[in-house]
Amino acid sequence: MREVLLGIEHITDLQGYDHMLYLVALVAWASLGDVLRVLLLATAFTIGHTITLLLAGMGWLHPSGQWIEFLIPVTIFCTALWNLRRSAGQNSTRVNRLTYVLTIIFGLVHGLGFSSFFRMMQDEGGGIILPLLRFNVGVEIGQAALLLGFLALASLLQALGVYQREQQVFVCAATGALALLMVIERSPF
Question: Is the CB of residue 45 less than 8 Å from the CB of residue 143?
Answer without folding.
Answer: yes
